[in-house]
Amino acid sequence: MTRLEKFTQAYLHQPIQGSSSNITNWLNGTPLLAEKGKVVIEYTIREEWLNYQGFLHGGMGAMILDDMSGMICMLSSTEESVYSTINLTVDYIRGAKKGDRITATATVVKLGKTVAHVIGEIKNEEGQLLVKSSCNLVNVPVRI
Known about the structure:
- Strands 1-2-4-5-6-3 form a six-stranded antiparallel β-sheet.
- With 144 residues, it is α+β, with helices and mostly antiparallel strands.
- A hairpin with a 2-residue loop joins strand 1 (30-35) and strand 2 (38-44).
- It has helices at 3-11, 22-27, 58-76; strands at residues 30-35, 38-44, 82-92, 101-111, 115-123, 129-140.
- The model has no long low-confidence stretch (mean pLDDT 95).
- The chain has one domain: Thiol Ester Dehydrase, Chain A.
């Protein structure tokens, strides 16, 4: 069974818990779609995710998209390896508040032998773009 098949069987439409990533578990998102090259996860904004003004902290948006970028590379790869972020560019478009449900999407643009490129976005329930990202990751051949 592939990593993608295992992930889909274990987590699709239920909160992710029991992942090897503590950050993924802490974020507690619910995958809505997982296919080769694309993953969509829903999150509910929590109190500890807010900045001092009461909006989603930029670092949280970046963390979600960074986590999902590595996740979709691992799920899409046939190799036993992990992906580590080389760089992450994030654009913040609009805010979100505690209790808002957001949907994050990570899509593989290129999954090379050494480097992968992923784009991501976070939208609110109305489909408005909140955050977008571009991420390059390196394939680290380590058994997990």
